[in-house]
Design a protein that fits this description.
Order of helices and strands: HHHHHHHHHH
Shape: elongated
Helix content: over 70%
CATH topology: Tetracycline Repressor, domain 2
Number of helices: 10
Strand content: under 5%
CATH architecture: Orthogonal Bundle
Structural class: mainly alpha
Largest sheet: none
Distance between the termini: 26 Å
CATH superfamily: Tetracycline Repressor, domain 2
Number of domains: 1
């Protein structure tokens, strides 16, 4: 995510047929996205259709087409809201890392993102299936890049590591591993597999120890 907001592949505004200007229209769009999220969370991507979204949102099908040209545009806009939450979370964690020293940086980060997964089961359903489009895949890669940049800044403060390409690479690798194992952990259910999450923490603590030893000597 070296290219934050402007380079996102998933942009709700770019895919929307028209932007909601009035409060009533904005409320309707919010209800549409909330309905799509509820269907994704409870039943998965295959159950997501424009008709089902309309029924869940309590709006005519035509109302959805006023704002979104197709189901893919609804999914793109919903993905944008998920990504926005993850971006906000990493920025909040960076700010918190500046204010106090954490006893367990790895545990703090994994617990924070596991909490986001629990709060957004639709996110897990969206990115864990074979239906992911190239656009969504690029958006996810961009999101992981921004998270990795936040992790880099956190490690500079919490572990006292020098900035540079070696630290940036280590942060990217850690995020790739964490992303894969978080998705694996949450395939078992909305609470996540606690044992897998603990194994992930153990793995990343060992990696951080190795990286710290390597970079501290430079």
């Amino acid at each position: 995510m070296a290219e934050p907001d402007g380079a996102r592949a998933v942009e709700g505004e770019a895919r929307m047929r028209r932007q909601p200007r009035q409060q009533r229209s904005r409320t309707r769009v919010r209800h549409i996205l909330e309905a799509a999220d509820a269907i994704l969370s409870a039943e998965g991507f295959e159950a997501l259709t424009v008709r089902r979204i309309a029924q869940r949102a309590g709006v005519p099908v035509g109302s959805i087409y006023q704002f979104f040209p197709d189901k893919a545009a609804v999914v793109d806009a919903l993905a944008g809201t998920y990504i926005g939450e993850f971006d906000a979370a990493i920025e909040q964690l960076v700010a918190e890392s500046e204010a106090a020293r954490w006893a367990d940086p790895v545990g703090t980060l994994i617990d924070a993102f596991a909490g986001l997964y629990r709060a957004n089961p639709g996110y897990v359903a969206l990115w864990s299936g074979r239906h992911v489009s190239p656009e969504l895949a690029r958006a996810d890669e961009a999101n992981n890049a921004a998270i990795a940049d936040g992790v880099r800044r956190i490690l500079m403060r919490q572990a006292g590591l020098p900035d540079g390409e070696a630290l940036a690479r280590a942060a990217r690798l850690a995020v790739v591993v964490a992303d894969a194992l978080l998705q694996f952990a949450f395939r078992s259910g909305p609470a996540g597999d606690a044992e897998v999450l603990e194994e992930l923490k153990a793995l990343l603590r060992l990696y951080l120890e190795q990286v710290t030893g390597r970079l501290a000597g430079n």
